[in-house]
């Protein structure tokens, strides 16, 4: 996966904004003001994604390129190495899962605006 693919996919999801709350080098994607994905902009090597705690552990055990979330709550976030051989299709699925986890926590009115 490359940076352009990551950006295009995240921005294709309903209600997503692209922001730089941590400085010019960290790209952050939010839905309704809540982060669901983050990565380095200059050195696109990893993506931080929200994950169900039990699934997070399972993915870390199954894939060498998945580790506890860097600079994030390690219980709820994974860092995915995009150059570790994990198929793009799977990474895109994990991005969508991260988005869905955040959307599920939003008030009903917000979810409805997003078509959820």
TrEMBL record:
<dbReference type="Pfam" id="PF04237">
    <property type="entry name" value="YjbR"/>
</dbReference>
<protein>
    <submittedName>
        <fullName>Predicted DNA-binding protein, MmcQ/YjbR family</fullName>
    </submittedName>
</protein>
<dbReference type="InterPro" id="IPR038056">
    <property type="entry name" value="YjbR-like_sf"/>
</dbReference>
<dbReference type="GO" id="GO:0003677">
    <property type="term" value="F:DNA binding"/>
</dbReference>
<dbReference type="InterPro" id="IPR007351">
    <property type="entry name" value="YjbR"/>
</dbReference>
<keyword id="KW-0238">DNA-binding</keyword>
<dbReference type="InterPro" id="IPR058532">
    <property type="entry name" value="YjbR/MT2646/Rv2570-like"/>
</dbReference>
């Amino acid at each position: 996966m490359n940076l352009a693919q990551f950006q295009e996919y995240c921005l294709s999801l309903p209600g997503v904004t692209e922001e730089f709350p941590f400085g010019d080098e960290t790209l952050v994607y939010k839905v309704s003001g809540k982060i669901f994905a983050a990565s380095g902009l200059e050195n696109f090597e990893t993506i931080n994604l929200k994950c169900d705690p039990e699934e997070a552990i399972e993915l870390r055990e199954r894939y060498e390129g998945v580790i506890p979330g860097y600079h994030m709550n390690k219980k709820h976030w994974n860092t995915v190495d995009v150059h570790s051989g994990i198929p793009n299709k799977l990474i895109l699925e994990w991005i969508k899962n991260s988005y869905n986890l955040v959307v599920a926590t939003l008030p009903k009115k917000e979810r409805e605006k997003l078509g959820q």
